[in-house]
Design goal:
With about 160 residues, this protein is of the alpha+beta class. It has helices at about 20-25, 50-60, 70-80, 100-105, 125-135, 140-145, and strands spanning about 5-10, 15-20, 35-40, 45-50, 85, 95, 110-115, 120-125. The protein starts with 6 loop residues before the first strand and ends in an 11-residue tail after the last helix.
Length: about 160
């Protein structure tokens, strides 16, 4: 599993290409040749960039769903809507397809934010708004999500 670190700002060119920042490229260097999957985020107006291995692991989980349950089939269709395989070109740029570009509202200013094993790709203004909105209730969210985690290996509680 890849554990990515960092938030980086970059610019998209007029063709919708963006240069992957060198600190991210270094973190991904061992898997760059495998390619990536780019998709719409489920909860936010951003894109999610999955290294191919992470995508395949996610698809293994999704593939366990019973497709004879309508809710599961609907989920699979929506989760994979607009999914694209992307690669970096020789200059280290990635092309964001037009449909995903429109979904995310990405303008010239872009933020790439690590989210454990994937990278979120945001329009800078939307990212800053999402972070500002989340800051208001982050303490409550942190308590709800992590407050009951008890890691016996490290005696956290």
């Amino acid at each position: 599993m890849v554990n990515l670190i960092g938030t980086y700002e970059c610019k998209a060119d007029v063709k919708g290409r963006l240069m992957l920042p060198s600190p991210l490229k270094k973190q991904l260097s061992s898997i760059l040749q495998d390619g990536f999957v780019l998709k719409r985020s489920v909860f936010q107006p951003c894109l999610e960039l999955y290294p191919m291995k992470e995508w395949n692991d996610m698809m293994a989980k999704v593939n366990k769903l019973n497709r004879f349950v309508k809710k599961n089939n609907d989920f699979i269709r929506r989760f994979t809507a607009g999914v694209k395989v992307v690669e970096l070109d020789v200059s280290g740029r990635m092309l964001i397809p037009k449909d995903l570009h429109l979904f995310s509202g990405i303008s010239k200013e872009v933020v790439l934010s690590s989210s454990v094993n994937i990278i979120e790709i945001w329009d800078k203004d939307k990212y800053e708004k999402a972070i500002d909105d989340a800051a208001i209730d982050f303490a409550d969210l942190a308590e709800d999500v992590m407050g009951n985690v008890n890691d016996n290996d490290h005696e956290l509680s």
